Amino acid sequence: MKDFEKNLKRLDEIVDEIEKNETLSGALSLYKEGIGLLAEASVSLQQFDEEIEILEKGE
């Protein structure tokens, strides 16, 4: 959960930096970093969802 929250925080920072960035190459670099973080967050959410399903079935 800690990594997920860390990734979300960094994604917010990246959005702010892209909005302020004046160069295309700088924005592209940040965009690539954001895509990687988004992929990690997606995997984390899928794992959380699977854990919730397991817990619900156990009740």
How are the SSEs placed, and which strands pair?
Layout: H1 2-20, H2 24-58
Helix pairs in contact: 1-2
Commentary on this structure:
The longest helix has 35 residues. The two termini are 23 Å apart. 92% of the residues lie in helices and 0% in strands. It is an all-alpha fold. The model has no long low-confidence stretch (mean pLDDT 92). The chain has one domain. The protein is built from two helices and no strands. The chain is elongated and about 55 Å long.
Helix count, DSSP H or I runs of 4 or more residues: 2
Low-confidence stretches: none
Q: How many domains make up the 3D coordinates?
A: 1
Computed CA radius of gyration, to the nearest angstrom: 15 Å
Q: How would you state the average pLDDT, rounded? A: 92
Query: Considering DSSP H and I runs of 4 or more, what fraction of the residues is helical?
Result: over 70%
The end-to-end span amounts to 23 Å
The computed structural class is: mainly alpha
- In total, the number of strands is 0
Q: What coarse outline follows from CA principal-axis ratios?
A: elongated
Question: How do the helices and strands follow one another from N- to C-terminus?
Answer: HH
Strand content: under 5%
Major sheet description: none
